[in-house]
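Incident log, structure service

09:12 report received: a user says their structure output differs between two submissions of the same chain.
09:20 pulled the input from the user's history:
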Amino acid sequence: MPRAKRGFKRRRRHKKVLDRAEGFVLGRKNKFKRTAEAVDRAFMYAYRDRRAKKRDFRGLWISRLSAATSGNNISYSRFISALKKAEVSLDRKVLSDIAIVDPRGFAAIVDQVRSLAPAV
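09:34 re-ran on a clean worker, output below:
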């Protein structure tokens, strides 16, 4: 029985993995075993970090809102509480964008909900 050396199927499988390793350095771009390990790990990090990115951005928006609200003499938590009581349906992303692009508009929003903020 003739021996089979895989031929083009192996080459096709290797090429697919090596193409995904574009931009990797040293042996991680051209040695198949190290490349396959690096590509698998890269996919795991990509999957994990697509979810972490959402948390990171929410934290950024909260930090921006906290800075903007403290400039308007109200705490972040009281501001969010007052927004919920006033039934304002703007999310943190939009509010932080307003705070950066249009500070006067954000101050107007703060003044609108300030009366609903819980007293100390």
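09:41 both user submissions now match this output. Likely a transient worker issue. Closing.
09:42 reviewer note: The chain has a mean pLDDT of 92. Residues 72 and 107 are 7 Å apart (CA to CA).
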